[in-house]
Design a protein that fits this description.
Elements: H1 7-28, E1 43-47, H2 61-70, H3 75-88, E2 109-115, E3 120-127, H4 133-143, E4 149-150, H5 151-160, H6 172-185, H7 193-209, H8 215-218, E5 221-227, E6 233-239, E7 260-263, E8 267-273, H9 275-281, H10 283-292, H11 297-311, E9 328-334, E10 339-343, E11 351-356, E12 359-364, E13 366-367
Parallel strand pairs: 3-4, 10-13
Antiparallel strand pairs: 1-5, 1-11, 2-3, 2-6, 5-6, 7-8, 8-9, 9-10, 11-12
Helix pairs in contact: 2-3, 3-4, 6-7, 9-11, 10-11
The chain binds aspartic acid.
Aspartic acid (ASP) binds near residues 219, 251, 252 and 272.
Length: about 375
C-alpha cells in the first residue's frame, strides 16, 4: 500500500509543527520542540553526488526528492526519482549509465530499496543493460514475492516488466578509463590470479592518485534516504559498484542490512565506500539497531565505523599507521528527522547532501579517524 500525503495535509502538518514550536517558545521559553511522527520536518539526505549532479536539468537528487515528498508523493518513489537523475547522468561514473565497468569492460549495476511504512524491500545485483537499476529494484518490491534478483534473471525480469535493455551501458569516458586500467593492470595475460587481483587494485588506486578517477568513483554509489511530515521513511541505494571488479562481484549496495536498511519505526541508514568492509559487518542494520536503542544517528554511524576498524586486520587493508586504508561513509536519518553523515576519513571535499525546507546543501561528513586513508 502506498501512503500519499496530500499537499493540504503537508501544509497542515507543517503549520501544526510551526504552531507547536511557536507555542513552546512563547509559553515555555527556549524548551526544545518535541517532534512527534505527525509533525516531523521533512528531510532528504544522500551521498554528496545527490547534490552535485543535475544531468542537464534544474534539480539535484535531494531537491527533486524533497519537492516530490512535500508535494505528497510516496517517499520511496520520490527518492528513486531523485537517484534516477544520477543514474542517467553520463558524467557520473559511479552509478547507472556510464558507471565504471567490471574487469571485462561490462557495466554491472546493483541497487536496493526499502519502504519503511509498507515494510517491503526489493533489490537487483549484477544487472546489465538497464540504466536505472533502482527502478528495477522497486519493481522487484512491487511485483514479486522476492527481495533480490541477480544477473541474467534480474535482466529477464526487467525485460518482462517493460524496461529497455541496452547492449552496453558504457560511455566513451567509462570505456576509456577501463582501457587505461586494462593497459596498466593486465600487461601480460596469464598472471597468477592473486598477483593479477593485487595489480588491478593497485592500478586502480594509482589512477585515483593521478586524478584520472575520483576516489568516490573508484567505489562510488548514491544512497538517498528521506522522511515525510507524517513520519514515512524510506531509502534507496544504487551503484555500478567497485570499478574493474571481478565479473559477478556484488558489493554491499544491493544487500539489505549492508548498503541500506530501513525500519519504518526507527530510521534509515545507507552506505558508500568499500563494500566488502560494510558487508562483513552488515553496518546499515547495525546502525538502525543502534538508533533503536536510542543512539543519535551520528553516534550510531560512528559505532559502525568502530566495528569496521576492529574487523580490519588483514595487512593489505591497513596503512602504515595500522589503520584501514580505504574509505567508507554512512548516512543516517531517524524517525524524528535527525540525520548525520560520517566517514572513516574526511577532508574538506568529503560532504554529503541534505535538503530541508531551507533548501539543499552539501554538509561536511564527520570523520571517525584523523588524517587520510593512504600513507602519503
Ligand atoms: N559500496 C559500493 C560497492 O562496494 C561502492 C561504493 O559505494 O563506492 O559496490
Amino acid at each position: 500500500m502506498t501512503k500519499k500525503l496530500s499537499r493540504r495535509e503537508f501544509v497542515r502538518t507543517g503549520a501544526a509543527a510551526a504552531g507547536l514550536a511557536a507555542a513552546s517558545n512563547t509559553a515555555f521559553g527556549a524548551a526544545p520542540t518535541v517532534l512527534t511522527p505527525q509533525s516531523v520536518k521533512p528531510v532528504v539526505i544522500s551521498s554528496g553526488n545527490g547534490n552535485t549532479r543535475k544531468n542537464g536539468g534544474t534539480e539535484t537528487c535531494v531537491e527533486r526528492a524533497f519537492r516530490m515528498i512535500t508535494d505528497g508523493e510516496d517517499v520511496l518513489e520520490s527518492l528513486i526519482a531523485g537517484v534516477n537523475i544520477v543514474e542517467l547522468d553520463p558524467e557520473d561514473s559511479s552509478v547507472g549509465y556510464g558507471g565504471l565497468p567490471n574487469a571485462d569492460g561490462v557495466v554491472q549495476l546493483d541497487s536496493c530499496c526499502m519502504h519503511g511504512p509498507d515494510k517491503r524491500a526489493g533489490a537487483v545485483a549484477g544487472i546489465e543493460g538497464v540504466r536505472t537499476p533502482s527502478l528495477v529494484a522497486h519493481a522487484v518490491m512491487q511485483s514479486t514475492d522476492h527481495h533480490l534478483l541477480v544477473g541474467d534473471g534480474a535482466q529477464s525480469f526487467a525485460r518482462n516488466m517493460g524496461f529497455e535493455i541496452e547492449a552496453d551501458l558504457n560511455t566513451e569516458l567509462s570505456r576509456q578509463r577501463w582501457l587505461e586500467w586494462k593497459r596498466r593492470a593486465d600487461p601480460e595475460h596469464y598472471l597468477d590470479p592473486r598477483e593479477r587481483a593485487e595489480a588491478g587494485y593497485k592500478a586502480g588506486l594509482q589512477m585515483v592518485r593521478e586524478g584520472l578517477i575520483e576516489e568516490e568513483h573508484f567505489y562510488g554509489t548514491i544512497n538517498c534516504d528521506g522522511i515525510a511530515p507524517n513520519g514515512d521513511i524510506c531509502g534507496v541505494t544504487t551503484t555500478s559498484g567497485l570499478a574493474w571488479k571481478i565479473p559477478g562481484r556484488v558489493g554491499d549496495s544491493p544487500i539489505l542490512g549492508a548498503g541500506l536498511y530501513v525500519d519504518g519505526d526507527i530510521g534509515a541508514a545507507g552506505s558508500t565506500g568499500r563494500g566488502e568492509a560494510n558487508l562483513y559487518g552488515l553496518c546499515s542494520f547495525v546502525i538502525v539497531e543502534e538508533m533503536r536503542r536510542g543512539a543519535h544517528p551520528k553516534d550510531a554511524g560512528m559505532e559502525a565505523l568502530r566495528r569496521v576498524k576492529e574487523n580490519t586486520v588483514e595487512q593489505r587493508l591497513l596503512n602504515d599507521r595500522g589503520l584501514p586504508n580505504f574509505g567508507l561513509s554512512f548516512y543516517m536519518l531517524n524517525k524524528k528527522g535527525e540525520y548525520a553523515g560520517v566517514a572513516m576519513y574526511a577532508d574538506e571535499q568529503s560532504k554529503y547532501a541534505v535538503c530541508t525546507e531551507n533548501g539543499s546543501a552539501l554538509v561536511p561528513l564527520e570523520p571517525f579517524l584523523d588524517g587520510r586513508s593512504t600513507d602519503d
